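Researcher: Final request for today, and then I'll write up notes for the group meeting. The sequence and the SMILES for zinc ion follow.
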Amino acid sequence: MQGCYLLHFDRPISDRHTAQHYLGYSDNIENRITQHERGHGSRLCQVAKERDIGFIVAREWIGDRSLERQLKRQKNTPRLCWICNFKW
Ligand SMILES: [Zn+2]
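Model: Predicted protein-zinc ion complex:
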């Protein structure tokens, strides 16, 4: 499947680096996520793997590069995350 995906990490990657999300684009999301699980495909996922921080796929969107630009332009990834916005 081609499109964008949002990874939500179990906790922030580091004290300095508060990022807890990764927004990515791939023409094969399933394949890319498998790579991320092994710590490949992005620096953030590599560091997460080293620190034993897991992630879940919070969201997926079917689309192309223009969708990726549209999502990244919002610069508000937590708002896109269903896990962060779900009221328990
Ligand atoms: Zn989240």
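Model: Residues 29-37 form the longest helix (9 residues). Residues 8, 21, 58, 78, 81, 83-84 surround zinc ion (CB under 6 Å).
Researcher: Thanks, that's everything.
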